[in-house]
Amino acid sequence: MKPILLTANGFQDEKVIHAFLEVVRIHHIPKKVALIPTADAVYKERNYHAVHTMEILQENGFEAVYIDIEFQQVQALCEYPIIYLNGGSPFYFLKQLRKSQADQQLRRLYAQGVFLIGTSAGAAVLGESLAHAAHLHPDWREGMHSLEGLKLISAHILPHSNRYEHLQDELEMFQPLICIKDGEYKLI
After folding, report:
1. Phi/psi at 180 (5° precision)
2. Which end of the chain has less neighbouring CB within 10 Å, N or C?
3. What Cα–Cα distance (Å) separates residue 100 from each residue in 3, 72, 103, 105, 116?
4. Which Pfam families match (predicted)?
5. Regions of the chain where pLDDT drops below 70
């Protein structure tokens, strides 16, 4: 299996772009990317980070498209060896992943060797659950009963962890916990 790249701020940081390009080079991954902007319920592909990411991908010679799983067929993801999950609301994103059955599709594609990049909410949904996010932001939960994530990573994933350092003790109950500070990334 290819690694999963988790990041808090996506391609806003040069070291994240470099790590991404290095994985593509080392693993000889074709330069075709599906960017899923669904986590931003309002702006979608007009989300600043989605637009910026698309520009960086194109500047580096990637063929890239937006696939909004809320409105497009998830089977379209099968054509891309790289799938980028953009940020936004982790709860809204998880709800749409389940509703469209993209959660199942992403599990299958990852098992087949697709390289996944998760940014912010896109990183959080790849873990065990969003229970830690619901604890930190109960008002964001959007009435969701099950907070179970895609479980592609056997841990809770906390992007922007530097914003929650004062709550370290509260987060102890959500172990294992992968913390990703703004500007950092983890290759899993």
Report:
1. -125, 110
2. N
3. 24, 9, 8, 9, 18
4. Peptidase_S51
5. none
